[in-house]
Specification:
Blueprint: E1 2-7, H1 12-23, H2 35-46, E2 51-58, E3 61-73, E4 76-86, H3 95-109, E5 114-117, H4 124-131
Parallel strand pairs: 4-5
Antiparallel strand pairs: 1-2, 2-3, 3-4
Length: 149
C-alpha cells in the first residue's frame, strides 16, 4: 500500500536518485551529471520557506516526488509544481494518478485553490495531465533566453 507524505531536504538523497533516474532517460534525456548543480537544484526546490514537496512511498522506497512552492496569486493561493516524477517502472500503473489525487486532497486541506505546472507538449506527461483534468493555458507562453558566456 502506498504512503503519501510531505517531505523535504532531509530526503534529498532519495529525491535526487529518483529524479535523475527518471529525467536522465527518455523522453527527457536531461544531463544531471554535475552533482553540485543537481544538489543546488534539489535544495532550491525542497529547502525554501515556501517550498512544498510531496513523496509517495511503497514501503521504504520513494516512488514518486512532487517539488514546487506555494504562490500567493490574485486568483488565490496555488501550488506551483516545478518537478513531478514517478519511477519509470511504476508509470502507467496508477501510482501517478493516486499521487496527484493525494496532492489535490492535501493542498485543498491547506486552502490552496489551484495547481500550476508546465510540461512539454510532446511528452507522455502532457497526456497524463490532460487525463487528470488539467487544462492547457492556450494564452500562456513560456520564454527562455540563453545568455552568451
Amino acid at each position: 500500500m502506498f504512503q503519501f507524505k510531505s517531505i523535504g531536504v532531509k530526503e534529498k538523497e532519495a529525491v535526487k536518485e529518483l529524479f535523475t533516474s527518471v529525467f536522465s532517460n527518455e523522453p527527457w534525456n536531461d544531463d544531471w551529471s554535475d552533482e553540485v548543480q543537481l544538489d543546488r537544484y534539489i535544495n532550491d526546490l525542497t529547502g525554501q520557506a515556501y517550498s512544498l514537496t510531496y513523496g509517495l512511498y511503497d514501503g521504504d522506497e520513494l516512488i514518486a516526488v512532487s517539488m514546487g512552492y506555494i504562490k500567493h496569486w490574485f486568483t488565490g493561493t496555488e501550488y506551483c509544481i516545478d518537478e513531478l516524477c514517478v519511477r519509470r517502472d511504476r508509470q502507467g500503473k496508477g501510482a501517478g494518478t493516486y499521487f496527484m489525487q493525494e496532492i489535490e486532497k492535501a493542498i485543498k486541506a491547506m486552502g490552496l485553490k489551484n495547481i500550476f505546472l508546465q510540461t512539454d507538449a510532446n511528452a507522455p506527461a502532457y497526456h497524463f495531465y490532460k487525463k487528470l483534468g488539467f487544462s492547457e493555458l492556450e494564452s500562456h507562453v513560456s520564454f527562455n533566453k540563453k545568455l552568451d558566456p
